[in-house]
Amino acid sequence: MDARLNYFGNPLAGKIIKHINSAGAAIGGSSLPAATQELVKIRASQINGCGFCTDMHTKDATHAGETQQRLNLIAAWREATCFTEAERAALELTEQGTRIADAAGGVGDEAWAEAAKHFDEEQLIALVGLIALINTYNRVNVIIRQPAGDYVPGQFA
Prior knowledge:
- The chain contains 7 helices and no strands.
- By secondary structure, it is mainly alpha-helical.
- α1 runs antiparallel to α7 and α2 packs parallel to α5 (about 85-100).
- The longest helix has 24 residues, at about 120-145.
- The radius of gyration is 15 Å and the shape is globular.
- The mean pLDDT is about 95.
């Protein structure tokens, strides 16, 4: 499968991605735990059907030391016992924030309150920004049908 266009080789796209990546760097440097960040990226990418981002972030998480068991269970996190309460709150916020159009009220108060129990203000800002950011990446890749499977950890570092 080939992408519909060479988005990542286009000068205008390069300008756009530069700004998106700057937001990603700010979030990456926040106090939101790195493992939580990867879980959020993977779960949103699964929901959005973004093979490129799912491939990238599962490989990055593995490279960073994440266990195969946890990676295998992200899509079934509600039934899995291997996630912390904070990670579960982040995954719930991710799901509701990613499926925002599916719920009449958007993200529910209960999901927000649970996340606020586990994360301070900076971490919540990073979490909200990360959910928005990964959804942006997912949409670009899904729209252009960016092929998945060839990512190598650190490739874009």
